[in-house]
What does this fold into?
Amino acid sequence: MNSLSIFCFYREIAQQCVFAKMAIEDLNTCRTKNTIGLNREYYFLQSLLTALGNISKMLWPIIKRNDEEGNELRRARGNELRKALNVKDDSALKNRALRDLFEHFDERMDEWFGADDRRGFSDRNVGSMEGVIVPSGIEPLRTFVPKTWTLIFRKKEFKLYPAIEAVNELCEAVQSKIGQPGKRIKRLPGEVAG
It folds into this structure.
């Protein structure tokens, strides 16, 4: 990569970190001002997941079939960016499973509805699984647990704190490269790390 292209990627990673931080701060505001409302939390969650996915794709590019030359360039770019920004291969930012659940929601629902006779579901719940009241035979699809920053998709839990911490570290690293200091996302009193 030449210096112009690497700077372009640094700027885009920095911008996606800012978007992730904005979504996190907005989610925190919903919690602290007791403005919990289904649409608002999921709007901010989707924004957060999109930013995390965009960061992930820049650092661990998607490999395409029948494009070896392009794949080699993408692999080299990802390797160079991760090395320059000191991002380990076990970073929480690498995992795109949660983002994919939201982005490919249609496919997940095709599978779910096709599995057996479904009587109903609840979706975009906010609160603990114990606190979400769901009638018998109704399956909760997505639940956000604000106290622990956990997102549950059909009983599979995804902790958001590891990705939030990884965004903080990445933001500091990339901003040092482009000369823009950033502010860390701080936990609010009473929040539980995952």
Remarks:
- Residues 186-194 have pLDDT under 50 and may be disordered.
- Residues 3-177 form one domain.
